[in-house]
Amino acid sequence: MNQSRTTKKSPQALTQYINQYEHHLDLKKNTLIPFKAQLSQKVFNATCNWHDNIELLLFTEGKGTLRYGTENIEVKRDILAIINSQTMHSLSSEEGMTFCFIIIDNSFFEENGIDISSLSFERLTSDNETFEKCLSLHDAYQSYRAEKKFLCAAKARQAALELVIDLCTKYSSPKQTTGEKNNSSEKYIKQAMLYINDNYAEKITLDGIARVIGINKSYFAREFKKYSGQTVHTYINSLRCQMADRFLSQGMKVTEAAMASGFESLSYFSRTYKKIRGISPVYTK
Known about the structure:
The chain is of the alpha+beta class. 46% of the residues lie in helices and 20% in strands. It contains eleven helices and ten strands.
């Protein structure tokens, strides 16, 4: 096996891995196959994120908690979660979970005459027929990526369209507008998460975040926990630990990763990392 030298990336370069708002630009650029369907690696904790496209999570192993908007939903094997557009969500599991995730760009709905912006989808299902359509899309998509043979793209598009029709027929309803106050609160929390994402390596305080987004500190702290399921302090530390994992995987030593992730001391990083991850940080090069 050829051994290539690992290039260390700057903290700024690695923020792409923790971008809470997912643009899905790769889907938008691929007009032929504007979707993807992949099996995840075992996930213990996923950062809260949101995006314009709907996302499907078909859980295949383990059990955990799906944070969906302001609610915690218990999920396990043979459950399909449908994440609506712009819905804040994250996944946590003590034992780890694996799942097939499917993201279909809104353009695919539109080109098939479906106004996705007017629809809202049920959050969970355990329907075997829908499971099979998800797995069929996964297989067709993977064949397209691996082979790109005659009809591979057409078969992947056919599988995607069959799944879209199934979802819209069984699980969709006209979208209901939410209250102005809730919309405002969610907007502030998303702004705060993006601010934390951009400044995780710097000193971040509750006062500072509230001042930047322009709301009362106490109200912000309360609404942040309501939407993220975590205190601001815990959320920041979780994000920093996730960034530290990325730095360690890129060849940084533990002390370097701790400093680059925004921790003020190695001892505090080690305690925090072990509390959140359950293990001590390890230099992986």
